[in-house]
What we know:
Blueprint: E1 6-12, H1 16-27, E2 35-42, H2 48-55, H3 57-61, E3 65-70, H4 76-86, E4 91-95, E5 99-101, H5 106-115, E6 121-127, E7 135-137, H6 150-153, E8 167-171, H7 172-177, H8 190-200, E9 202-203, E10 206-207, E11 213-223, H9 237-267, H10 273-277, H11 286-302, H12 304-310, H13 315-318, E12 323-326
Parallel strand pairs: 1-2, 1-4, 2-3, 6-11
Antiparallel strand pairs: 3-12, 4-8, 5-11, 6-7, 6-8, 9-10
Helix pairs in contact: 9-11
Amino acid sequence: MADPLCSVVIVAWNRRRELKPALDSIFRQTIAHRIEVIVVDNGSEDDTLEFLQHSYADAIQDERLRVYAFERNEGASHGRNAGIRLARAKHVCFLDSDAEIISDNAIERCLERLAQGLERAVGGMIWFDRERTRGFCFGGYITHDGHVDCLRTQTERENPMFLSTCFSVWEKTLLEELRGFDPFYFWGIEDVDFSVRAYFNAQRGRRRAATQYHVLDDIHVLHEMASTGRKYEAGNFEKTFMDLERQRLYLVLSYGGLFEFFRNLLRGPFRVKRFSEVGYRMPFQFRHQFLSAWWFPLIRLIKLPVDWRNMRQNHLARSPHPRLIAGKNTDNSV
């Protein structure tokens, strides 16, 4: 395949069972003969690599599929950044390894929309179930204090603030302009951070015109939400609070700057409602109040210069290089 129209990037970790529906849905696409698939394995401990080489030997042979692997789990951001660098097409589609494209013309429709030049990234309607009764993500929205607005995200699609990398198609030049996905987010909301950065387009601290997104209502994707690769611990207050609050404040700093960061840092611990929003399942104790109101803000202030510096680096350049497992090497391989 000398000139693919779209490069589909899938990052996988112990997802051997889920990968088959995901890959088969790509190879059912109406323009499958013009699509290249790049699977970046994050050090899986099951037989993911052997399964891919055996079950998709024909796709590997005719250059529709290339398989790369890290020696260890480097996280979703590094995996997607590697996929961006490896992509040969001008448009990159992200698909979660536990997702399945229901609409056989999905990628073709997305490319047609992008060809109109109205947006630089488009998505579809992503569902929890095949019957399409429970929405997972249509248009993505966040609140002023850095939380995902779940109700709007699962019901609305007009003027979204972010697109889910469960399924979305992007101009590769936009992915490069935004310097890729921030590896700070190892196990969640890396796509929210990236999309919101593009939405506000605060590239290297300079405000520019916002990037617009569009969600096609005739494109449908199933997201099965596999249990592997998810480390949320609802019953552990300290770990959960530290992880989620650090992500939230880092996200606010990324798109809102120092003013929004300090505003959220000061008012956040006193908004008790937030503790039920993120799903803590234990009584709110004095120790929790101390951690959230004093200890955690102190840590974040001390580490603010480090976070501020890291989020402005070129994440694409920082990401490690996976090794080629199966498929033909290309000029822009890493």
